[in-house]
Design a protein that fits this description.
Layout (H helix, E strand, L loop, with lengths): L3 E5 L3 E3 L2 E2 L3 E6 L3 E3 L7 E9 L12 E15 L3 E5 L4 E8 L2 E6 L3 E3 L6 E5 L1 E6 L9 E5 L5 E6 L6 E3 L6 E5 L6
Parallel strand pairs: 1-4, 2-5, 3-6, 4-6, 6-7, 7-8, 7-9, 8-10, 9-11, 9-12, 10-13, 12-14, 13-15, 14-16, 15-17
Amino acid sequence: NLDVYLASEEAVQVDQINANRRVELRINGNLTNAGSVPSSINGHSIQLESGLFGIGTDVTPVTVTTQSGGSLQFAAGTSACVTSPTADVALVLGFAEDVLRLNAGGAITDFFGGTADRVFGNDITLSGASIGANDQTLGLRQRTTAGSTNLTSTLGDIQVAASQGGLNLSGFNSAAGGR
């Protein structure tokens, strides 16, 4: 049983972290991928924080894989670009002051199954096999009315709810429908 905890006041580039339990990275700088492995951070419960800076980039997102039954939580002071190339993502929280991009090879769902917002950003892009579930929407909050939201599912439905102020929907591409 292995947990990984790392805190830094500087930028951190991750080549590879493998843990069968918790991975927690608290960085007060940019958090980026250093290598080209399919998934840089692998663990059961993954928590990423970048303080005043960003997580990944549009060109090179931080890659993660959560184990079955696990969760993902991330927060960035600027932008967050996170990809789970093959796994489902059960989201505790996704937060970015500006751009939030989350791509998953599997489903993107609410870890707790409640009604609370789980995704916060100004410009939000979510892409996964499905987003939310028929019996459980994924809560989104667009931080300003100047932002935009783009949602794409490759296999299933898109089931989301916007709790405050609605969404400026720039794209809704669902393989199977949604609401």
